[in-house]
Design brief:
With about 130 residues, the chain is mostly helical. Helix content is about 90%, strand content about 0%.
């Protein structure tokens, strides 16, 4: 029974951390995605996709790395440290992936826009 409580604690902390990140970044991510995608409908799709990634990937890390079948009596500080580190690891990996994808998109967008401006200017001159 104690294993079930520990597993529930892991899942609960993972979901709580994910929801905190989503609340904190939700509005900011929506504005960036609207700017990058061009339309609000496209941004809404990618925002929904990002929310699901933020919920499920950290949860997946916790579920696959849960190893409390050998738990002794009571919840120890070492067990709590292990649970919290897994939750934070899942969140950091997810933030890194989403951040990298957005960074790559943002860093290439101005170059593409400036190239389009150059091409447009050349056409106008001709």
């Amino acid at each position: 029974m104690e294993d079930l409580v520990l597993f529930g604690l892991e899942v609960g902390l993972s979901l709580a951390a994910s929801i905190f990140v989503l609340i904190y970044l939700g509005g900011l991510l929506k504005s960036i995605l609207t700017d990058l995608c061009g339309t609000e409908e496209r941004a809404d799709f990618w925002l929904g996709f990002s929310k699901l990634i933020f919920l499920f990937f950290p949860l997946l890390v916790v579920i696959f790395s849960s190893n409390h079948s050998l738990a002794s009596t009571g919840i120890t500080s070492q067990m709590l440290r292990s649970i919290i580190s897994k939750v934070i690891l899942g969140e950091l990996v997810t933030l890194s992936i989403v951040g990298f994808v957005l960074w790559m998109t943002i860093s290439t967008t101005p170059q593409e826009k400036s190239q389009e401006s150059i091409n447009t200017a050349k056409k106008e001159v001709l």
